[in-house]
Amino acid sequence: MGMAVGGHGGPKSDINMTPMIDVLLVLIIIFMVITPLTPKGLEALVPQPPPPNQPPNQSDQRTVVISVNADHSMLINQDPIDEAHLGSRLEEVFKTRAERVVFVKGDPSLDFLWVAKAIDIAHGAGIDKVGLMTAKVEAGQ
Fold first, then answer.
1. Are 112 and 83 in a shared domain?
2. What is the pLDDT of residue 2?
3. Helices 112-124/83-94 angle, 10° precision
4. What SS3 class is residue 14?
């Protein structure tokens, strides 16, 4: 296997490829098992525009949108709120709701840091899903 003894010329050493191939096959199997478990990207949740010629129903009026303005002020459905009270206000709004979904809309000139803070506060308040709104989504395109 590893070394041939005897014969002409004395001992002869060769690299034994069988253990290396076994290790390689084990690594391939491990990577094949782990690969489907790795996340592929971020889940995106986008509000859908209402169908034309239909009045908004009760669930549409219950949509919660956190708006972050260019001056870093925040609004919950057009009600001004400061960053310190955002988490407690979201807990209060969602304590009776079964579906915990909120959308975050940031000013286009704003750094993503401020939107990320709003998302982090929402997750801290127990919100299951946080969606991002853009100008195109809001316009209904």
1. yes
2. 54
3. 40
4. coil
